[in-house]
Design a protein that fits this description.
two-stranded antiparallel sheet; 22% strand
């Protein structure tokens, strides 16, 4: 895929990936309460200053209707994890770039888009995703929206691992090791209790 320097890098649609079953938490993580509001409300607030549009990937549209945002079902009939949500995001998007973020982190970095977008300005890349120290955070990613056909073809191989799809592309890691507090995905009641209350 040729690199296009005329990419409209400022035109970004963010999609919050909330299509999972939250089996470890036992309840919908996107709707967990923190500081009096649901996780997804905090995420929307943090995204509003970073992107042009926001949508939510969910297979339970009634649950998220009150946010007043576009709701995107998984791109596959069965729930095949976040890769199906990313496919839904790319299929929906009409802007040049698509940002995807998970639904279980209300502490989303205010510099997330700035740093990921910088990768597109200086590298010939298809997508950029966050890393923090030795951890890859594959679901904090900025992707070319024209990858939709590529991902559709990959899903047809019945491989649903995000990292393995990324491995087929020109993907770069963007370092956020100075911001570990902004990559605290909440998967248990114990982790929820550790979030700062003020």
């Amino acid at each position: 895929m040729p690199h296009n320097r005329s990419f409209e890098l400022d035109h970004i649609t963010a999609v919050i990936l909330a299509g999972g079953t939250s089996t470890r938490m036992g309840t919908d993580k996107a709707l967990l309460q923190w500081r009096g509001r649901e996780f997804v409300a905090h995420i929307i607030e943090r995204l509003q200053t970073q992107v042009d549009r926001i949508a939510i990937n969910t297979n339970s549209p009634v649950t998220f209707a009150h946010f007043g945002l576009p709701l995107l079902a998984d791109a596959t009939a069965k729930r095949f994890g976040p890769l199906a949500g990313i496919a839904a995001a790319l299929n929906y998007n009409s802007t040049a770039l698509t940002l995807v973020v998970p639904c279980d982190n209300p502490l989303l970095s205010p510099q997330l888009v700035t740093r990921l977008r910088a990768a597109f300005e200086c590298e010939q890349t298809d997508l950029a995703y966050a890393c923090c120290n030795d951890d890859n955070h594959y679901l904090y990613a900025l992707l070319r929206s024209d990858l939709r056909n590529n991902l559709t073809a990959f899903l047809q191989t019945h491989d649903y691992a995000v990292r393995r799809w990324y491995a087929t592309l020109r993907a770069i890691r963007v370092d956020f090791s100075d911001q570990p507090e902004h990559f605290r995905n909440i998967n248990s009641a114990a982790e929820l209790a550790l979030l700062p209350q003020r």
